[in-house]
Amino acid sequence: MKHSPFAWSMMLGDLTLASWETIMHRTRMMADGSCTIGEYQRMGTEKLVAMQSAAIALATGQGHAAAMQPFLSKARANARRLRA
C-alpha cells in the first residue's frame, strides 16, 4: 500500500481518525481534571519532534508520505494509549 496511488489519501484518513480519537480522549481528561502535567507536556513535545522529523524527510527528498509518517505514528500511538 505504501506505493499505491491511494497511499497519501489513506494516510490522511488514518491521521484524521486517530487525531479525532486522541483529541476526544484528551478533551475528556481536561474536562474531568485527570489530564496530568506530563500529558500536557507530551502534547507539545510530540508535535515538535514530529515536525522536525517531517522537515528532515522533506529536506532529504523522501516525499510527502515520509513527512506525514511521524504525525501518523504518534496519533495512532496516542489513540491506542489513551483508549486503554
Describe this structure in words.
By secondary structure, the protein is mainly α. Helix content is 82%, strand content 0%. The protein is flat, with a radius of gyration of 14 Å. It has a domain at 34-84.
Question: What is the gist of this entry?
Answer:
This protein has helices spanning 7-32, 37-59, 64-83. The protein has 84 residues and is an all-alpha fold.
List keywords for this structure.
3 helices, flat, 84 residues
Per-chain topology:
Elements: H1 7-32, H2 37-59, H3 64-83
Helix pairs in contact: 1-3, 2-3
Bulk shape: flat
Strand content range = under 5%
Instruction: Figure out the total of helices.
Output: 3
Helical proportion?
over 70%
Radius of gyration: 14 Å
Average predicted confidence as pLDDT = 93
Distance between the termini: 28 Å
Report the structural category: mainly alpha
**Number of extended strands:** 0
Profile the largest sheet. Answer: none
Low-confidence region ranges: none
Q: List the helices and strands in order.
A: HHH
